[in-house]
């Protein structure tokens, strides 16, 4: 172990995933202060919503801190193939261009993403479990854990200052249906071999008080449900929950039904699994073309869209026909998934549309048809005891999760600290200490452009959504006087104001009146004229329709040529 | 009872509240077909959200069907004072101008609303319980029910074709803290006096399988929690849940704390209660000015904002200081409320901000600190049995609730039908029959304007939020050729396109190129020119930033004067 007098230090800083669920990206560093060699663990995305990020395609972590220190970054490690851990790779890797390590299934998904983005597959290096990778002062091993996607892993990160376990996403599942089971012995051995300095640990389910249940515990319930269903059986879950896809498919088979996967994300995941050889014992499925000819009572669809996403298979089936399939009275639709907070309305829409068709709707029914892929509170406590780390640094959670998780650790006599995105922790000594704070933003993938969350672009979109938009154009001629009257065009505003008056007409009347009485000084000054016209628009709008719209003023000046 | 050969019929049609939770408005009619005399029960609002109604202030039922038949409308009855039953009154009453009936507390709230809107208080007539009001062919009695606001009532509507019970919102609470208890005997007597032809019944909690619990059952839990809290105690609930305000205030008093109400809506509700004499035995509270000087351990705040509303007291306290009050480590914040689907993210924001302050957060804890104001499934079954109506028509619910409620009724051998907004039901015979369908919209209160949900105004705002907005202006001179080059202004779009190019510059370059090569025929035709310029904008934007913005084209033609 490095002596305490060493000028080298071991640091940790989340760029994403600490203070939110999603967008995971964590930095570790070792070396002299501000010259530490760095590694990055995970490059995940978060998903946009209409409230705070309308029109945005994906939310990415802000890696500008890392980009400013690119010469110090040695490698990127991806723990598993879920979007909140790997999704940012094709969008941010071009800014980093460092080797990426992953296990075969994760690598297959990552390479697919790189290829789609026109990037090189070879950036991703395939690694085996429990095989140390040496990068700079770090030696990193992938330690298999159970989760809901194959080949999930924790990382065992050895540094001169001590051994770190970075849990990744995990649960304690002795029989996880896909991927390796959780194995206490492996972690015990790691802790015995070298004391654990710090455990960076998944906090998602810290508020779930009973021990987590195995994926294998719901198969029987599902078979039972499917056997008792009369018409077509449809089940939805996350495409990336490969374990559930298998559990559902096996339950369908057990109930004597042919299984058909619907939805692009689902087919992609299964293809990656089959190509990487990880899903060899996956139940055989039929294509949708074959499915159309199978009697409803003998068919089970497994479809995307468990969160009510408008373009996914679930929503399309709820609205009407989709790829020749159509739901009707007597069919059963199962949500084998949890509702992610914020998606209630979208899911509700799908449920009500299905209800209108007379479809029986079954939700996860308090755990009968769904289990989480994350460790619950007693499981976290078990892992703390198993590893007996000097410190627990909670990650993968909102502030309330991190705080609760830290409380569990300190209650058990383990050092802990709440470190949200941008808080740098010095792990070198016996006590984790905050040693820096960097303001972290978020980056939006908007179409094909990357936009900073604080750049004002999305703020303007939100304002137009709330307030509508008015364009005013006017022409000023060669001698500095108004040519004709200003025009107003509006978008997203009521056409009629007070007393049934046409809003645009009223507005143009008042603008014309203003321009008619405005002095040459104002007409000569673009800034002043723009400000004055905006003021007129806002005032008239407030009077007529009770709103203050966003305004674009276009002043065209004819030059004396 | 009217003989079946009578040409008169008894009809029912929801305008709002059937197919959604909120915006209640139900029509009853009796008389010759298409000449029925009409009454309206409730005029509620629903609340907007960013996904489907950004910038909208309130969602109101579409009463155009009624406005077209105004000569047939005799009266409006409000069952109770919750916003989803009375909120539309000041906005829609001017379109109807008919007498409004309500019990005193409801009338006090309604009169306050009318006054604020500059309308006459006298439109609202105060009625007592169990006192028949004769309007046209109807005789209507207010029958007290327990709910979470004082003087909630069902309506007993007598018509020549039979007696109807319109449940309003209700629960079976023998001790509802405010308002009258539920009384089986009253309803039994009504059914004995005259058989119940139809029960129009609240469906909100049809999926809750255990019997509802009394408001009085949580007082002890609350006192216990508050006694054990060390710092300041803060509790939030709906301001309109007057029962809970009282339960919370009494629990605070019992724990030896002074109670202070924070938030405009809360003070308003309490004032209405005190003025109408309904809250005479309400615990004494202190003002916020007094509260500032009370030691934290002796103080309890009851605040608005249980749904995370940004401007409410909860959110303000979570962000920082509010009216001199500030939360800190060791304080306790209780959500004595349920999360309305769709509000999870807003509530999560408040919770995480409180967590950052070190405040202990307590949620409703599975019913320990909250009970619903609506009847659960067994309670509904009890009421069906009590009244033994010929038919049950479910109301106050989304489609799935109505369908489930109808199933309960038919399973018990009672006729039922799912009637969503705009479906007219003929109740005259033994079986409820659909006798009409009118496409119902929703109306948005947007600022001070009323906008139809399908008018395209809000659709345009949503599009601008998703796609951003570009304004292109160009001037065509007297002889029909372009004067200078087109200008582009953008809002809510990334400034930089592919390869770091300035997006607006690229766009203006391509627009200039197009205009330069465009024939005089296109330049002469506003529609064609506009369409062509739009096409250029969309194409360039797609190439440069991967999005298709909304576009406003302004063509100014200089006339040869």
Automatic annotation (TrEMBL), chains A, B:
Keyword Metal-binding appears in the UniProt entry: yes
Q: Does the record carry Heme as a key word?
A: no
Q: Which UniProt keywords apply?
A: Exonuclease, Hydrolase, Metal-binding, Nuclease, RNA-binding, Zinc
Q: List, in alphabetical order, the Gene Ontology terms for molecular function in this entry.
A: exonuclease activity; metal ion binding; RNA binding
Which parts of the sequence belong to the Metallo-beta-lactamase domain?
Answer: 22-222
Classification via SMART domains:
Lactamase_B
Q: Which PANTHER family match?
A: RIBONUCLEASE J
- The identity of this protein, by name, is MBL fold metallo-hydrolase
Q: Species lineage, top-down?
A: Bacteria, Pseudomonadati, Pseudomonadota, Alphaproteobacteria, Rhodobacterales
């Amino acid at each position: 172990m490095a002596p305490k007098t060493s000028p080298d230090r071991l640091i940790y800083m989340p760029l994403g995933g600490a203070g939110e669920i999603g967008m995971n990206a964590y930095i570790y560093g070792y070396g002299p202060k501000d010259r530490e060699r760095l590694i990055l663990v995970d490059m995940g995305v978060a998903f946009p919503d209409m409230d705070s990020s309308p029109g945005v395609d994906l939310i990415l972590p802000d890696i500008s801190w890392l980009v400013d220190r690119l010469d110090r970054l040695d490698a990127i490690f991806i723990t598993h193939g879920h979007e909140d851990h790997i999704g940012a790779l094709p969008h941010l890797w071009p800014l980093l261009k460092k080797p990426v390590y992953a296990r075969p299934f994760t690598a297959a998904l990552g390479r697919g993403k790189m290829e789609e983005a026109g990037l090189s597959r070879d950036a991703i290096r395939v690694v085996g479990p429990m095989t140390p990778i040496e990068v700079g002062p770090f030696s990193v091993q992938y330690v298999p854990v159970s989760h809901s996607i194959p080949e999930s892993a924790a990382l065992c990160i050895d540094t001169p200052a001590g051994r770190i376990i970075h849990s990744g996403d995990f649960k304690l599942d002795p029989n996880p249906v896909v991927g390796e089971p959780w194995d206490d012995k492996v972690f015990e051995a790691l802790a015995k071999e070298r004391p654990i300095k710090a455990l960076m640990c998944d906090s998602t389910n810290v508020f779930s008080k009973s021990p987590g249940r195995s994926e294998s515990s719901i198969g029987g319930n599902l078979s039972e449900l499917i056997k008792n269903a009369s018409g077509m059986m449809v089940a939805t879950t996350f495409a990336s929950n490969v374990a559930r896809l298998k559990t559902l498919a096996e339950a369908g088979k057990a109930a004597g039904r042919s299984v058909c996967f619907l939805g692009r994300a689902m087919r992609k995941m299964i293809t990656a699994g089959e190509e990487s050889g990880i899903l060899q014992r996956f139940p055989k499925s039929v294509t949708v073309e074959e499915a159309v000819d199978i009697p409803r009572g003998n068919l089970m669809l497994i479809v995307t869209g468990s969160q009510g996403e408008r373009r996914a298979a679930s929503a399309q089936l709820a609205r009407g026909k989709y790829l020749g399939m159509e739901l009707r009275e007597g069919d059963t639709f199962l949500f084998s998934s949890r509702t992610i907070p914020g998606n209630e309305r979208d899911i509700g829409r799908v449920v009500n549309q299905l209800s209108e068709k007379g479809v029986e709707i079954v939700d996860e029914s308090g755990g009968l048809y769904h289990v989480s892929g994350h460790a619950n509170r007693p499981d976290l406590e078990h892992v703390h005891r198993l590893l007996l780390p000097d410190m627990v640094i909670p990650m993968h959670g909102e502030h309330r999760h991190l705080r609760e998780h830290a409380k569990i650790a300190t209650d058990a006599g383990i050092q802990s600290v709440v470190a949200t995105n941008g808080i740098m922790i010095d792990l070198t000594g016996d006590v984790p200490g905050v040693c820096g704070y960097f303001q972290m933003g978020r980056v939006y993938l908007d179409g094909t452009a990357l936009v900073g969350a604080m750049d004002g672009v999305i703020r303007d979109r939100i304002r137009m959504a709330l307030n509508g938009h008015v364009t005013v154009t006017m022409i000023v001629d060669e001698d500095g006087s108004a040519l004709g009257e200003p025009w107003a065009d509006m978008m997203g505003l009521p056409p009629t104001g007070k007393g049934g008056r046409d809003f645009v007409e009223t507005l143009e009347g008042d603008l014309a009146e203003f321009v008619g009485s405005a002095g040459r000084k104002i007409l000569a000054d673009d800034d002043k004229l723009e400000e004055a016209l905006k003021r007129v628009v806002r005032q008239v709008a407030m009077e007529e329709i009770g709103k203050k719209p966003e305004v674009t003023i276009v002043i065209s000046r004819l030059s004396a040529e």
